[in-house]
Write a structure and sequence with these properties.
Length: 223
């Protein structure tokens, strides 16, 4: 019996020394938090499209279609993510739902970020992307496996050919998106999983910001 207790002690000791991983980022009332897209914790739903890191030293597999060059040099942290292959790079190319486009969130190329929220609240979501056309500028955002209306169809029209912050939701009436409609409601403090999923392939994702400030101006983030 003693040896069993000894073994249990060893197991318990090992278990205690291997503490569960701490969420890397704390989101609270102290102002916006900015997360690099490439620091994601997991991705799922990758059978048709997935996110690839591009940096000065890393690139997506060369056989995946991508018509434009790397934009890593001007990306924050020197790296970004892109959904590839990009089989609809122009409006003339066929739109294939479930392949190069998906209006339903949480179905394709889902990124996950483990974050710790130290305050409940409504968190507005801003994302910096690099878009070169009208078919690489849509994404969805969700929380803990839920995809609320307020996280669907983030859209960018202005700021082509440059890394550009926006927080706008595409609507029936305004295809370029309405500001102030993209947010996640966090009911209680604690660990949460913030998720992004594909709407259009070829989407280039540098970083995102969460803020309780409805008047947030991303210009404040520029050094
Ligand atoms: Ca591209
Ligand atoms: Ca595309
Ligand atoms: Ca980045």
């Amino acid at each position: 019996m003693r040896s069993i207790y000894a073994l249990l002690f060893v197991v318990a000791t090992v278990a205690c020394t291997e503490a569960p991983p701490e969420p890397e980022s704390l989101v609270g009332e102290g102002g916006p938090i900015v997360i690099e897209a490439e620091s994601f914790d997991r991705q799922t739903h990758t059978d048709v499209r997935r996110w690839y890191v591009t940096s000065a030293t890393v690139g997506a597999p060369a056989d995946l279609r991508d018509l434009d060059p790397s934009h890593a040099a001007a990306a924050s942290g020197g790296a970004y993510l892109e959904i590839l292959p990009d089989t609809r790079a122009t409006p003339e190319e066929e739109l294939v739902v479930g392949e190069n486009f998906i209006n339903e969130p949480g179905r394709m190329a889902v990124l996950e970020y483990d974050l710790e929220f130290d305050a409940a609240g409504r968190y507005y979501v801003w994302v910096s992307i690099y878009s070169t056309g009208p078919d690489d500028n849509g994404i969805h955002v969700g929380l803990d496996g839920e995809w609320p209306d307020s996280g669907q169809r983030m859209q960018w029209c202005e700021g082509k050919d440059a890394w550009t912050w926006a927080s706008r939701q595409r609507t029936e009436e305004e295809h370029c998106g309405v500001p102030g409609l993209i947010y996640l409601d966090v009911a209680t403090p604690g660990p949460r999983v913030v998720q992004f999923s594909m709407r259009e392939d070829g989407f280039e994702f540098d970083r995102f910001a969460l803020t309780i400030d409805a008047e947030f101006d991303p210009a404040a983030l520029k050094e």
